[in-house]
Amino acid sequence: MKRTAIALMILSLPLLACNKSTPEPAPAPKAEPAKEKPAEAPKAAPAAEEAKAEGEAAKAEDKQAAAPAADGVQELAIESVGNEMAYNLKELKVKAGGKVKITLVNKATSEAMKHNIVIVKKGTSMKVGQAAISTMGVPPKTADVLAASDIAGPGKTVTLEFATPPAGEYEFVCTFPGHFAMMKGAFIVE
Ligand SMILES: [Cu+2]
């Protein structure tokens, strides 16, 4: 009993840390070669449009859309970020039909930093994540869980293949204890 209480305390530590952490900084704008200033005053409009386009490009880097393969398997690749509780993508998108194959690379070097990827119904990532605390990250087999990869240790790669769910919005989440609050994103079927 006492041991369980201690384990729960330890597991909740990363969560507490998450809550305190500041939001991720926006991605740094791409370095642009210094432009020579024209003698005439530059027109404001094109510069503004350029900045907007750059912002959209930076945003697009968070997303990945699968290219359908000939055999109907849409492949997606996602990674964890260093020793952080973070994926490198916030959105995964596929087309309805066929299958989806997701490859997750755990880029961590810290022994404690294990990850998985679980596809869940929209709005259930917290519920599923909480349920997986007592099972060391293995998600429950409930109707909320559409597909779940194995847990990848640091430096390891896992793959997850499943029938593409019906068109709609879902979530992907890491259910390794304490990670679900930060490690999640949108899984969209068009
Ligand atoms: Cu994780």
Written account of the structure:
The protein contains three helices and ten strands; from the N terminus they run H-H-E-E-E-E-E-E-H-E-E-E-E. The protein has a domain at 64-189: Cupredoxins -  blue copper proteins (Immunoglobulin-like). With 190 residues, it is an alpha/beta fold. It has helices at residues 2-20, 44-60, 125-131; strands spanning 63-65, 67-68, 73-79, 91-94, 99-105, 118-121, 145-148, 157-163, 168-173, 184-189. Helix content is 23%, strand content 26%. Bound molecules: copper (II) ion.
Descriptive labels:
binds copper (II) ion, 23% helix, 3 helices
Helical content (DSSP H or I, runs of 4+): 10-25%
Could you tell me the CATH topology label of the domain at 64-189.
Immunoglobulin-like
Strand and helix order: HHEEEEEEHEEEE
Task: Find the structural class using helix and strand composition.
Answer: alpha/beta
Going by CATH, the homologous superfamily of the domain at 64-189 would be: Cupredoxins -  blue copper proteins
Low-confidence stretches: 4-24, 34-39, 41-45
**Order of strands side by side in the largest beta sheet?**
1-4-10-9-6-7
Count of distinct strands: 10
In percent terms, what proportion of residues is strand?
A: 25-35%
| Mean model confidence by pLDDT | 81
What molecules are bound to this protein? copper (II) ion
Shape: globular
**CATH top level label of the domain at 64-189:** Mainly Beta
Separation, N- and C-terminal Cα atoms: 47 Å
Q: Helical element count? A: 3
CATH second-level architecture of the domain at 64-189: Sandwich
The main pleated sheet reads as: 6 strands, mixed
What is the CA-based Rg, rounded?
Answer: 20 Å
